Amino acid sequence: MFQYFETNYVWSLAVAAAIEMGGKIGEIETMCRPLLEVARQGDDEGTQAFLAAWEAGGDNLVALAEEDKACGRLLSAGDKLNRAAVYFITAERMQAHGYAPRKALYAKFLRTFAEGVKLSGENTQRFEIPYAGAHIAGLFTPAEGVTGAAPCVVIVNGLDSTKEMVHRAGLFPQLLAKRGIASLFIDQPGTGEALRLHGMTAVANTEQWASPLMDYLQTCAQIDPQRIGLLGVSLGGYYCPRAVAFEPRFALGVVWGANHNWGEMQKRRLDREGERPVPHYWEHVRWVWGASDIDEFMALAEQVHLNGVMERIKVPFLVTHGEADRQIPLEYAHQSFDQLTQSPDRELKIFTPREGGIHHSSLDNTANAGAWIADWVAERLGGTVR
Fold this sequence. Notes:
Keywords: Hydrolase. The protein is α/β, with parallel strands linked by helices. It has 16 helices and 8 strands. The chain has an 8-stranded mixed beta sheet with strand order 1-2-4-3-5-6-7-8, with helices on both faces. Helix 4 runs antiparallel to helix 5, helix 10 (about 205-215) crosses helix 11 (about 235-245) and helix 13 (about 280-290) crosses helix 14.
């Protein structure tokens, strides 16, 4: 993984993710160069400076986009707004939950992302799926070259990502669309809009939101109700298998980064084992899970494992993991795969240095790993790989 901040994995992970989402290295260098000394102070110190630098970089692109719009150059404006949105969400994600400017920056990000998609002519539309008196928001990209209802993959976030971040990484919606597969990236409870705007915290029994989601998708004319798969990224490597195990209408499942026993991993993190994904980590996980203190969080986390769950899965299932993942041990991928005893078509894919994608959720090379996953899905949902 490209480690811009040599002594700071967490900050470098944010840079790597921004590049995978379409950020430009020259713009990122301008934002990051003043932060080099600050980054040496550790994960948590200096995140406010990180926000200021990256928001300024995004604001500059917004100003340039306004100039494009004044000249009628809407496609150019859209491209700049798309990158500005990447920089805004990267900065927002790095902040402590209680840092006041975070809320305003998230609102700015949503506006910028929506306008960028519109002006750049991206074939993506917003879905709002009714849930718990509010809604689960999603980004839907239709399949290409398909007449009538198409197969679809629903993609869920990890601990700290949002639907827009996962949607941008490695052009995954386009990879699926070219293979005749529609995609729906959602902010499930505990992530994105669900957490930030509606206060929906994460739940261990993910079928609680996956089944109403499936009910909704059964009514969508663009989607074949018999060919809906579910893919989870990072902590989605827990959310996804749990949902597929208890919601039998999913036609297949994929984890992009196994997370077989996340609760156990929290105990290991208390012992300083493994890298963390975000600064202010313990504050972040308490926010995501709605826990008032570390003891309540650890009690909730004990429920977040897949022992006794994987055996319930009776559809094709793919487990992927990066060989050099520094956050989640490779052993968890083997545990998830070994327990898929009832799946009629199971596969374990370990990404190696030869093809890239060896770090957490392939943030060092989402393109190659994403294409491999898209091919696997297409071969099983009736898409095309030619």
